Amino acid sequence: MNSPTCPCDGSYPKQRKLERGVQQWNLVIGDGWLQINVCRDFMINHPLKVPFFQGINPLRVSCWGLLGVLVSGCLVGELQSQEAIPDDPQTSATSQAPSEVDPQQVLEASMRLFNDGFFHAAKQGFVDWLLQFPDHESTSRVREFALWATAEDRMQKGQYKLATDDLSQLLEQYPESQNRLNYAFREAWVLFRMEDYEDALQRLIREDQPFQEASRQSETSGDPGLTLTRLRGRLLLAETYLKMKDFEQAKRVLDAIPDWS
Prior knowledge:
By secondary structure, the protein is mainly alpha-helical. It is about 55% helix and about 5% strand. It has eleven helices and two strands, in the order ββααααααααααα. Strands 1-2 form a two-stranded antiparallel ribbon. Helix 3 packs antiparallel against helix 4, helix 4 runs antiparallel to helix 5 and helix 7 packs antiparallel against helix 9. The radius of gyration is 39 Å and the shape is elongated. The N and C termini lie far apart (about 85 Å). The relative contact order is 0.05.
């Protein structure tokens, strides 16, 4: 490859005055070499009479030495121009626009947090999702899970009264939810933790309460998760009788549990 040509022979030329009024320099990368084009006449071999080099005016440099300075200056100018605000705001907004986010992937990430027991983070994820995708078809379902995550988060923190309010709201607002049995069981469990044994007992045994209603509806579902929740409800009922010192009733409940061993 031929090296770039230089109009000087490397010797120190006669002193020439730096012409003013040069408007721009163009830095062109081609064939592996940096080429400098000048928009106006400019004598390239001259003393360095640049303002920040005023102290070394007597110094004269060769063509290649000055080209190095000019290339550096052009590179700095190019970097500064890239940081400047573009003339076309629409073009800038298009180039800086974030990539499209998949609502399902974002929702699945929050669901994984919920299933792993990180209810506070899951709740925040559901709330952020609702703000980001307010018109999505899954909005109602995500609102339900956001409220459920709030209730579970409060239970973890021992805020049982607030948790019962959330669970009652879930049972009222989502009567057809497939999670209704879970809400009813958790409501009775929170009342038990609050040592409100009588209220917990009524929630578990009364036929018109959500736990018994959801238990009957889920008996033929074949869902192992719902079967486990029904079993947990019976164990909680037996423990409630024990707390109330009704040992005979506690024994009857335990004897009625089938042996699945």
